[in-house]
Write a structure and sequence with these properties.
The protein has 153 residues and is an alpha/beta fold. The protein has three helices and nine strands; from the N terminus they run H-E-E-E-E-E-E-H-E-H-E-E. It has a five-stranded mixed sheet with strand order 1-2-9-7-8. The longest helix is centred in the middle third of the chain and has 23 residues. The radius of gyration is 15 Å and the shape is globular. The two termini are 18 Å apart.
């Protein structure tokens, strides 16, 4: 077990099997030293664990948990892409999509669930650029979707 997988274990995180694409796309694309990972929704055991819209029945704390689970699913795809997670040298960028109504404005707080976990897992290499936007809906009524770009050696 490598350093990053040991850190995941310390955090009580077991990586799931990477989710298969549900449409005409690939789960990740490797180009040079970068891995771009398609958006991951908060799947747990093949089912959406957090559904609905922020500000309309889904709390910020629940949204943060959804974003955190999305990041776990990103890391599962990352492991499939690079094999050994210790090869990851930087979390380059995360993109967050938050299902919310027009009155909701705390998207950044929700996305911190993923960003905070990136730093917990990868340390300083987990600090990243980020975009977070609100959207009217996501696949399967997921509350959050997170995509990522990672550098590896």
């Amino acid at each position: 077990m490598g350093r990053i997988e040991a850190r995941l274990t310390d955090l009580g995180i077991t990586l799931p099997a990477p989710a298969a694409p549900v449409a005409n796309y690939i789960p990740f694309n490797v180009t040079g030293p970068l891995v771009v990972i398609s958006g991951q929704i908060p799947l747990r055991d093949g089912k959406i664990a957090y559904a609905g819209k922020l500000g309309s029945g889904v709390s910020i704390e629940t949204g943060q948990a959804a974003a955190r689970l999305c990041f776990v699913n990103l890391v599962a795809q990352l492991k499939a892409a690079v094999g050994d997670l210790d090869r990851v040298t930087r979390v380059v960028r995360l993109g967050g999509f938050i299902a919310a109504g027009p009155e909701f404005t705390q998207h950044a707080q929700v996305m911190n669930g993923a960003s905070d976990l990136a730093v917990e897992v990868f340390g300083e290499a987990g600090r990243h650029a980020r975009t977070t936007i609100g959207v009217p809906s996501l696949p399967g009524d997921a509350a959050v979707e997170v995509e990522g770009m990672f550098e590896f050696a």
